[in-house]
Specification:
The protein has eleven helices and no strands. By secondary structure, the protein is mostly helical. Helix 3 runs parallel beside helix 7 and helix 5 packs antiparallel against helix 10. The longest helix has 32 residues. It starts with a helix and ends with a helix. 40% of the residues are buried.
Length: 200
């Protein structure tokens, strides 16, 4: 593996494992719904972000970003969706395992895939990946696919670690009061992550 790819691997790991909307959702879902419920969420995040890196890298998102009105509308819609998710998390009580474990929390697999497009951290990381780890004149498609694939592989265990942390936290939330306080805190954290979207 070249030095550039080793550097990218380190970047991808740090980017995937640090706190952000994806990891907050996984943590909250694991704490309230259990570890199994996070599997569709983790897979959706990894695949969705890999697709996002590919699309951004191949330049298909450029025309979208160049239309200021459309870009602003999508930014506000995305922020509204994240606030709805934050509200759902903040208000959630002890779940019925038979109902929630099959869905993968509030989003499920496809919802987690789509969530990347309204996640400000995902946009920043996708753009940073493309601008920093590609070289003009090289085989761009192959390079973009390689970078996206590395991100998918690295995201799985990184996000999975948050699920394990959430499941461990869930064992401490046996009382309804503590569970409500935890869910409220997770909802507030997710809502706070929307601020850069609204101010950007």
């Amino acid at each position: 593996m070249t030095t550039g790819l080793l550097s990218f691997l380190a970047f991808a790991f740090v980017a995937s494992v640090t706190p952000g909307p994806n990891n907050i959702l996984v943590l909250a879902t694991a704490a309230t719904d259990g570890l199994r419920a996070t599997i569709p969420l983790i897979l959706g995040i990894a695949l969705g972000f890999g697709v996002m890196v590919t699309v951004v890298g191949l330049g298909l998102a450029g025309p979208l970003a160049s239309h200021a009105g459309l870009h602003a509308m999508l930014r506000w819609l995305g922020a509204a969706w994240m606030l709805v998710l934050a509200w759902q998390i903040a208000r959630s009580a002890a779940p019925d395992p038979a109902q929630r474990a099959r869905k993968g929390g509030p989003l499920g697999f496809w919802g987690a895939c789509a969530f990347q497009w309204v996640n400000p951290k995902a946009w920043v990381l996708a753009l940073a990946t493309v601008t920093t780890y590609t070289v003009p004149g090289e085989a761009l498609v192959g390079r973009i696919l390689l970078l996206a694939g590395i991100f998918v592989v690295v995201t799985l265990p990184s996000t999975g670690a948050w699920a394990v942390l959430g499941a461990g936290t869930g064992r401490l939330l046996s009382s309804p009061g503590r569970l409500r306080a935890f869910n409220l805190a997770m909802g507030l954290l997710l809502a706070a992550s929307v601020v850069p979207v609204l101010l950007g």
